[in-house]
Amino acid sequence: MARITLDGIAHAYARNPQSPQDYALQPLHHVWEQGKAYALLGPSGCGKTTLLNIISGLVIPSEGRLLFDERDVTRLPTEQRNIAQVFQFPVIYDTMTVAENLAFPLRNRKVRRPQIAARVADIAAMLELTPYLNRRARGLTADAKQKISLGRGLVRSDVSAVLFDEPLTVIDPALKWELRSKLKAVHRALDLLMIYVTHDQTEALTFADRVVVLNEGRAVQIGTPEELFERPEHTFVGYFIGSPGMNLLPAQVAGTRAQVGDCEVQLGAAYPAMPADARIQIGVRPDFVTLAPTRGLKVQVRRVDDLGRKRLAHVSLAGHPMVAMVPDGMATIGAEAFVNLDAAHVLVYRDDVRVEGVAA
Amino acid sequence: MNDKPWNNRAWFFVLPVLAFVLFSSIVPMMTVVNYSIQDSMGVNNFFWNGDAWFRELLDPSTEIGARFAGALVRTFAFSLTCLAIELPLGIAIALCLPRRGWSIGASLVLIALPMLIPWNVVGTIWQIFTRADIGLFGAVLTGIGLPYNVTQDPVSAWVTIVVIDVWHWTPLVILLSYAGLRAIPDAFYQAARIDGASRWAVFIKIELPKLQKVLVIATLLRFMQTFMIYTEPVVVTGGGPGNATTFLSIDLVKIAIGQVDLGKAAAMSLVYNLIIITVCWVFYTVMTQLERRRDA
Nearest chain B Cα to A94, which residue? Predict the structure, then answer.
């Protein structure tokens, strides 16, 4: 049981980092609360695995301190931290049975035999591995192997956090949902801190209580799935999360109005005057942009994607591409149409960072 | 079946291969079979002899049978000794090699160097190296008072031949094991650290099982090569002292070329060949069956 604190943790793989570009992970302050499920979300190479390996001790950070509760563990070797980790590719010990695999971490820690047997039986029951206990682990399917890797972590009663490094990559799509809900169930049953690394936003948003979005080694936003969707603090979060991502249009903002080319957009709040050299954008998710045959802002329709449950129109507003929802009733779509933006969900970004408006 | 294209020109692709195999393996092999069932008197004077050579060869009470049995035992002893040293040593060295940086290339090239030296050159190098008067190895051992003499002491001769083979061919085991070790993903080592496994447990539970396939190949190669050992003992010891290092191949050459006993030699080489094939086949089958049973 622990709370994990990152106190200015940063890491560079090169010996002498000079510029911020040399860092795989920019200085980061964050507290991972006991019993919560977190996701580390970001594109490949954004530093999420580095951060995970720092927590598990496989990588020693070049700067900052790592605290488990109040204890400084920054330089403590992996085997002395009470951490379990599940890797992208299932790691199992080929020559051992499932039961021996699960017992391995306890054997290494010289736990007494009856105690090992009881723990293994408990964990196997929880992960539904009991029927396979006496089989060789390596003949099993990828999802069963991944459950064994997880089980080897959970079997230790001292474990305070479980780290997942893209654990569902090699699992069949049909089984992904099943295994993910298993993870959720384990999380609820054991009250553990879980940190889940992924580049798949659906995985992150369904698994986690809170999501840390990383980009180029920087944590750009930490929030609940709802916050990330409703109020992206950074344009990166806007277009990385959501399918498709947020529409971002260069604009001039004055008061409650934004000017995009020759179109005027109504905003949900009033904004102070911005310096002329700042790059101002407005952002609005496609879910809050509706296509209409008449009335609204005039757009050119480029193409319409029919996704079955919904239709998305790719349009161009004053020369800038954007995506709008097509309402159910709208049958024929010509080369020209109109869009209506939900003013409450139009956000303003200055140099990629969200600006808070004053309620109008 | 009928909608498949039918074109006799395909024979042009197949026939060269058949012709090559015919002249490289089948014709020489059948020549040997032909000799093995005949006795020769003088030049080109052959008589039908049936399976008499084979009976004599496999009966240790005859002169040739006793020679064959003795050489066979020595050859097996040599093979097993070399395998018992080279495999553990090769794995151990492979485990110590660096995992990253320029030192990988440097150490691999250095290690592979002995393998690039031709057999008879290896023999000559060691023949000189082990001489008590001008050879460093021989002079040092004699100097510190060890009874080391390749031409008179069977133990010295054996130790020398085994050391030569270990020096010459352990690099092969090292290279194969190193390749096998490099193929193990880092996650296995990381998981083992998290599971609190000792270095020994990592070796037994991760590295050795992952090396299994590579080691089967290494064992087969090393068995075949050591079982066919010829050049080094011929150059260094000449098969002596007495016949202490007379292995099957050496005896075979003595009979075929020294005594021009083509029938005996042919029968012996066929049996020799069959032994190698049988041992390799049994070993490989057992190993693959074990593996299959483990998966079940």
Answer: B209
